[in-house]
Amino acid sequence: MSVTTLDPRTALVVIDLQQGIVALDTVHPAAEVVARSAELAAAFRARGLPVVLVNVAGLAPGRTDGGAGGAVGFPEGWADLVKELDQQPGDITVTKHQWGAFTGTGLDQALRRRGITQIVLTGISTSIGVESTARFAHELGYHVTIATDAVTDTDAEAHARSVGTIFPRLAETGSTADVLAQLPAPAGA
Length: 189
Fold this sequence. Notes:
Rossmann fold, Isochorismatase-like_sf, alpha/beta, Isochorismatase-like_dom, 6 strands, hydrolase activity, Nicotinamidase-related amidase, hydrolase, 189 residues
């Protein structure tokens, strides 16, 4: 389903655009995903709409592939958000320890306090962090939109399945330009 509308209280949720993730080999250039996400973040901020910047700093408890109890070490700076996002004091920041941005983070409460009814998603990886967050947001009753040119994955087949099969069942999808066209005029314009 294409992008038809954005609710008046929509938040941008940017998934895992952090040093360690954007350095991975991805299907589409990570720099393009970062640039489009940054463009959306600036547009949302200009309209007084919330921007949520999510990073991942560990694994969910109980994982066995990360060592004993899911323990894994990441290099220093691995979880640092990329500077291109221009993180602002008013942004909501979420650090997660699992695939999706809702479980165990307080994100749902932070959005509901602000009256948010819809989220726009961007980030890496399409089939993991973005899809998990989209699924949970849908289950929580949020309207979900995914800027499909602002997501990528390390696996081409997984990316294609998420964008072509999963997302149309959960969300409206379209380009960054489609999302920008649905935003109201900036405050004071």
